[in-house]
Each structure stands twice: as structure tokens, then as C-alpha cells.
Amino acid sequence: MGKNLLEQLREITVVVADTGDIQAIETFKPRDATTNPSLITAAAQMPQYQGIVDDTLKGARETLGQSASAAEVVSLAFDRLAVSFGLKILEIIPGRVSTEVDARLSFDTDATVAKGRELIAQYEANNVSRDRVLIKIAATWEGIQAAAVLEKEGIHCNLTLLFGLHQAIACAENGITLISPFVGRILDWYKKDTGRDSYTPAEDPGVVSVTEIYNYYKKFGYPTEVMGASFRNVGEITELAGSDLLTIAPSLLAELQATEGDLPRKLDPENAATLSIEKLSIDKATFEAMHTANRMATDKLAEGIDGFAKALEALETLLAARLASLEG
Questions:
Q1: Structure confidence at residue 1 (pLDDT)
Q2: 300 assigned to active site
Q3: Which member of 3, 29, 136, 219 is catalytic?
Q4: CA 130 to chain centre
Q5: Does 327 map to a domain?
Q6: pTM higher than 0.85 for the full model?
Q7: CA-to-CA distance for 97 and 58, rounded, in angstroms?
Q8: What's the domain range around 300?
Q9: Which of 31, 77, 153, 174 gets the most CB atoms within 10 Å of its CB?
Q10: What is the number of domains present in the chain?
Q11: Is residue 128 situated within a structural domain?
Q12: Is residue 328 part of a domain?
């Protein structure tokens, strides 16, 4: 009996679970796992994870004391909840978990640095090495500069909401550990912009973008890892077989696991080394010019930050309601 697509993918690419659902992580046994505000908010509403939410709220109350207001308790619990899920996930996986900085800080370098240090301190207070955590930061110019500071302190970063080569090059030049280019969201934008219903996997704009980034990194020897993210279908995943990592939602992991057939390697560092590619250098002015010229990247970065910010606001509301219920 032949190997399924998931088994074959694991032979050439590190498979990462893109979820806050701990049961799904137990099922698929990925090396690493990633979360984001939307995933944490969704998981926090699942009955099976109510204990994590309640324990986080109770811990925040205990830290602040009975005299603290409900708003203060919720604020502290909110800061701790992503780490609470991260700690549970790290009990299951052998590798790293990505935990995201508040998206509302995406254009504030100093605040992002402070929050990254704070998240790592929470993990280290729970005896988790910083080598097992990636601090997830939106790939704005300010976010990339914050990540550069953190990387110099040995705090590894995952730059997310990445839609263009300019963002990827700036990350590589600043020594970032890993980037998460968003495949499916790029496809979404092009389908809406062009009116096309579909693209073949090989011409999918998200696949084309990640392939370009991967080849650029391998051509010029950058160690920054490429982790394709935000997939809409299995075809996007199989077209990026060979990427350093791919972070995949449980529904698509299940589809890969249930599908047999050959999975050829599409991305290969030896092939990238033979390509003719122009080397660019990205300073702030170049970054901003390239970003403005790329309508898709401009739209999707702003939309992604806004979406994550709204998810965080929903989580704050959920925590306030739960605290009121717990404390009567």
C-alpha cells in the first residue's frame, strides 16, 4: 500500500498544524504548531477548552488580588491566554509553538519589542526554553524592526501577514528566524480583483508568490525559514511540497491523509541555486515604495491586521463575560 500525501509531504517538508484546537494537534502529531488571534478566540469558545480559559482568569485574579477591577483581571488574563494555549500545545508537540503579539501594536516597534519580551518571560516562568517559542509579529516595517531587536536577544520570531517579496527580503536581511507568507489570502484577493473563479495550482498567485520567495532565499543563502500558510485547498499545498515548512489547518491535514498518489517535490534549493535572480536591498523607503506599488499586499496586510484586532476585541468580550459568570 502506497503512502498518503501527508506521509510523503512529511519526508520533504516540516508539517505544522495551524490551529488552537489541542485535540486536532493530538490527532495529526505535527512537529510545530501555530496560533493566531482568530484561532485562539475560536478555541476559547469550545467547551473542551473552558478549563484553560477559567484557569487563566482565576490565575489573573489571584495575581492581582480581590481589589482589582474586572477590567484589570480580564486585561491580564487576555495577555496570558495565548501562552496558556501555547503551554498545552507544547506538552504534545516536540517542536515550537508560535504565539502572536497583539495585532493592534503592529505599527509600534517599541511596544512590539516589549510585548515579545513579556510573552517569552511567561514561557520561561513555566520552564519552557525560548528556543521552543516563535514570537509572531505582523510583517509591517515596524514589526520587522521589532523582530530584529528580539532576534538579537535570542528571541526567535515568525513574521506573519506576509504578502510580498519586499516584506520577505526585509525579514531575511534583518535575520528573522521564520516567515509565514499567506497563500490563500493572496488567491482570495486575485479572484476578487480579476473576477476569475479559479486558478490551477501551478498558476495560483499565492503559490507563485511563495515559490518566488523560496527561490530568492535559497539562491542567496538566507537562513530564514519559509513556512507557507493560509491554504484554501490541497492543490496549493502540493505545489509547495519542499518548502521548509507548511502550516496547515486540520481539515486540509485530514484531506492530505486520506489521499493517495505521488507527491513530487516542487521546491528545491539545488534548483533555486541555478536560477537567474536579481538581488535587492530593502531599506525603509524601498520597502514603503514597493508596498505601495503592490495593491494586493497593501490591501491584505491592512485587512489582516484589522481582522486580528477584531478577533482580540471579541476575545476580551468573551473573557469579561466568563469572569462575570465565575465571580457571580
A1: 67
A2: no
A3: 136
A4: 17
A5: no
A6: yes
A7: 24
A8: 5-322
A9: 77
A10: 1
A11: yes
A12: no
